[in-house]
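CORE FACILITY INTAKE
Project code: CF-77B
Contact: R.S. (postdoc)
Sample description: multi-component assembly, three entities in total
Requested service: structural model of the whole complex
Turnaround: standard
Below are the sequence entries exactly as provided by the requester. Do not edit them.
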Amino acid sequence: MNLLKLVGWEVERVTKPYLILISLLVVTQFAWLGYFLWSETAFYEEMRRTGTPDYVLTFSNYIGGTPFILSIGFAVTAMLMYSFWIWYRDFQGRGTFMMRLLMIPQQRMFVFTAKLFTMMLMVLGLFSIQWIVLKIEYIAFTNWFNSQMMPISGSFERAISFDGALAIMFPASLFNFFVHQIVIVLVILFIFTFVLIERSLWQHTIWASVFAGLKLVGILAVPIIGYFFIEKRLIYDETLLFIGGVLVSMFFMTVWMIRHYLTKKLNV
Amino acid sequence: MIEVLGVKKRYRKKQVLEDVSFTAQKGEITCLIGLNGTGKSTILKGIMGLTPFDRGTVLVDGEPLDLNRVAFVPDHSTFPIHFTIEQCEAFMRDFYPKFDSKLFARLVDEFKLFLEDKLNELSKGTLAKVNLALGIAQDPDYLLLDEPFSGIDVFSKEQIVELFSSDLMENRGVLITTHEIDDIEYLVDKAVILNRGRIVREFDVEDVRFIHGKSIVDVMREEYGA
Amino acid sequence: MIIQFNTRAPVYIQVVDYFKKKMALGELQAGEEMPSRRELATELKINPNTVQKAFKEMEEQQLITTERNRPSRVTTDEHILKRIRTELVDEAVAVFVESIQELDVTMDELVDKIKRQYGEENLDDRSTGS
């Protein structure tokens, strides 16, 4: 089936940079872990010589370190950038490869669906690799400090739930996980919509980007402003319902817009 | 028959196509003639839905465009430039159901192409031949070609011209855009002249020679007032 | 086979004329097979439809005959072949006369010149052996 082949095609094209990104992430985190274990042990030894050490290490000390935060931040930024690039790449040269994609005898929405699937595969891949790496890091963390007779406290789960980025990536409940995934999909959809609006305007100048940006801000502004008006009148459950409704309608809105621009407006 | 009916296209403040209507028959070579920047490419891309028209209709044998039956050969590559000819073919085979590898192999042979060559290593003439081969191998009923002779060497030109009079084009409708008619003077059945976003003449080439003793260039000269 | 086409005359008529000349000169004999339409189009680099039209014209003028699914052949009708020759000579003379009339030459002078030049050229031809 063409859709699956297209996904395969998109995945194939991103494999190399993706593997580089993952390796960078893993190498940075392990290098930081090595340094963390070494410096903390040295510090503890120093304290032991001069007096009584009175502090306890937690896993949060490791994942709260600047190198760790930077590695996650870098990966997230790379993903966001790639959401743009996955489209702009095909407009390089004189609108070239996009032309080929759009002339495939099939539904044009497949081009979009394949790109969205690819993005989600990359995001979920990144999350699962990060999860495995975190587990390994935690095992190394506990084993090392136990072997050094250094006191540690706190569980793995607690450390994750206190960390900003990791709590979003790995929420405690499955329900929250789905909600977070939907929000991630929405972010990608907004980026896709932006690109397609911008590419549908004939003159690809800075004004096209401004126009596309304003259009999206307008769409986002409606529920946010609306929320401030009704916030005080809602009880907790109603607020949840409101947010759920907004997410769902945003989803359909962006998909509808992508469909409209991709099939009727896009200028290659 | 491809029918282009009352199409309009505006880019910002410039009305590129005012009101364009013409037809291109199957089994014939129709040439869309216009000076540079008159919107010839826009018409072909519009027919293919790549730059949608603002107004108007395009019908292929009375029905909306079917990409299985119409192929477009632009004057530039449609693949990433680091691709080899073989990779282009593989993509076409994967995604274009009617792509005929045997036909492609025959064209590669006739044009003396090397499958392992990368697109960015090819001369303009060779690239034009690759594009053409990829287009014809889709075995389309209608083939749209954007400036197939522009800026390419004389021998590539000869090979391409020969192709148009060969059995490979039999029963296909061909629509070519050009701003220089010399290369294909004796190839075309019908000429459509575009000026300032309008079709100013649409004529059977042999009829004009027979009845008025005029060449295509004579008619162009009348229209463009050069 | 190369034909220098004139852009201002119908190509199919130029193709027909080309074959008429070949028939008149005996380069194409009565009953001889004509080249295929496809070959001809590719060789002359012209539109196959134009070749088709030229063949149709030749069939109408009974210069060639075509049976179903077989290559066309030059007519075996000697009268027609002779008529082609006469026609071509007549046409050439007509063109010649028209242009010479503009120059206001007397008949005697003209005949004299023709005799001298035409004779000389034919002698030249023989001496160079072509």
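Facility notes:
- Strands of chain C lie at 64-65, 73-74.
- Chain C touches chain B at residues 5, 7-13, 38, 41-42, 44-50, 53 (CB under 8 Å).
Invoice: internal transfer
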